[in-house]
Write a structure and sequence with these properties.
The complex is a heterodimer of chains A (160) and B (73). By secondary structure, chain A is mainly α. Helices cover 62% and strands 5% of the residues of chain A. Helices cover 73% and strands 0% of the residues of chain B. The chains are: A mainly alpha (160), B mainly alpha (73).
């Protein structure tokens, strides 16, 4: 078994990212603004390419300076979180396409799915996308090379 | 305020409240299930020290790693 080197992952940045996604998606739903959903999807996918939480600028330039969040750095793998963000971004992209082709109900269902999963991660500490990543790893699917940090349940926030 | 926005706001509040309720009920269900299983473990019946370990018939690493514990006095 290969030795896995954990990195320092700021879970506060991930949490602020998710809270921003939840807030913007609910705002988009209430004010019926599908373009906001497309914008959130774009920011999330760009975040995947940047290898960072999409809305990390909210964390760095608003949440941290205003004292709304404190760094919460844990030893973890960043890849599963990136994969979770990719999944969320793809679901919101599919939702945006649904709006374009006139199936708004399907679009909003996808938006609420992302809201539910982001809320589960932000408030419950369980990342479904990360759990999927580790599950794919167990199935030896290429590209899913990381294993859960020792002593942690796959997908759950690691201790300390 | 636009009636459509108000309707959507109430719908959003309903969905959020439903989600919170579902999460709360799920946690309650898991706690109740865990409590009902707790008393069935052999350790709680015998009152003696017991080793609880997890493996499968083909899990060589599980057996290898846990073997020293089996022979510990």
């Amino acid at each position: 078994m290969a030795i896995q080197v954990l990195k320092r992952v700021d879970h506060a940045a991930i949490k602020v990212n998710q809270l921003t996604i939840i807030f913007l998606c609910i705002l988009a739903f209430v004010f019926n603004m599908p373009w906001v959903v497309a914008l959130v999807a774009l920011v999330m996918l760009v975040g995947v390419l940047r290898k960072a939480p999409g809305f990390d600028f909210v964390y760095r330039y608003a949440a941290l300076p205003l004292g709304l969040a404190k760094p919460d750095i844990l030893s973890d793998h960043p890849e599963p979180h990136r994969f979770a963000q990719l999944l969320g971004g793809l679901v919101l992209t599919a939702g945006s396409i649904s709006f374009l082709i006139g199936t708004a109900a399907a679009g909003w269902a996808m938006v609420w799915l992302v809201i539910a999963l982001a809320a589960l991660n932000a408030f419950g500490g369980f990342c479904v996308g990360c759990a999927l990543y580790y599950w794919f790893g167990r199935l030896s699917i290429p590209g899913f090379t990381r294993q859960p940090p020792a002593g942690s349940i796959p997908g759950m926030r690691p201790e300390g | 305020m636009n009636i459509d926005i108000l309707t959507r706001l109430y719908l959003a509040l309903g969905i959020v409240a439903g989600g919170i309720l579902l999460y709360f009920l799920m946690n309650k269900f898991l706690l109740i299930r865990t409590r009902s299983v707790k008393g069935t473990l052999p350790i709680s019946v015998s009152g003696k020290v017991a080793v609880l370990y997890f493996t499968t018939p083909n899990c060589a690493p599980c057996k290898t790693i846990q073997r020293p514990l089996h022979y510990a006095r």
